Task: structure prediction
Amino acid sequence: MKKRVTWMMLMAFVTAMLVAGCGKTQQEQDLQQEQDLQQEQKEEENNQAPDAGEVQGEDDANRNLRIGGMKGPTTMGLVKLLQDAKNGETDFDVEFTLAGSADELTPGLVTGELDMAAVPCNLAAVLYQKTEGQIMVLCTNTLGVLSIVDTGDSVQSFADLKGKTIIATGQGTTPEYILRNLLSQSGIDPDHDVNMEWKSEATEVVSVMMNADEEVIAMLPQPFVTVAMTQVEGLREAINLNDAWNAQNDSSKMVTGVLVARKSLVEEQKELVDSFLDAYQASCKYANENTAEAAKLIEEMDIVKAVIAEKALPKCNITFLEGDDMKAAVSGYLQVLFDAEPKSVGGAMPGEDFYYKR
Result:
């Protein structure tokens, strides 16, 4: 009987232990399931939330400006801004394309590969017409910088250009139309009384003068007038075209270069555009007031050597105008070109939406 009781007690103990063990296992399973569920929820949240780097990347893309400019004064006022952007000292990034001529920049503006570009003023109007109003002018960057230079002494005035060959760059843009206008106002037919020989870049014009055995007459912009005078013996500035323009067109300024932007950029990121204009205005001021330092940046941009840039900057007429002042200068200049040759501004004067005002 004692053995039977002992056996029964043992069986009861084992059963209790088994029950307790099963209960513990169930608790552990429940706990594990709860932990697994929490882990799954956490992973799902992580997958749905954008990565911090991705967010930053998208924001950076929205603050990135793709800008084009030409070798010459229209880019010289931009160099401080480009340096600051490179050093992370602006609240936007810049991808800059330096071109030898405006023709290299035009496709990028039309297709949207460029957001902004420094171009000849009349080209801005032509692009406005070609894109059906999708190009806007933000500001001026350069007023008159063109001169007639002569390796001899036969040219003292516009009258002396009759029957001469003039080597130049800028066919179909501001330089050509300025020269045609001034020749016409001086009683010279630009299609019959002079022979224009066009080159793609100003450096080609300088090369022709350096290697010529006879007198050469050319039209050049700064800083290439200064470049040529250091390389071509006896070269002189025969006619300053800005002075000639002001004498014959007292109601308008000669606007050589402007900064344009795609209309979509202005409409979608006005704050970014305004921030850029603030930096650009400061950059133009820097170029005019700190010529030695700006000249070094110009050489780093491979525009011209610093020693040349420092001499040329005071003559480059780097001028930042925006808003109503810009509109008055640009519209007045374009009107003169339009009256002389409508196709020079795209066949019609631009509308009010061509001019950006903050």
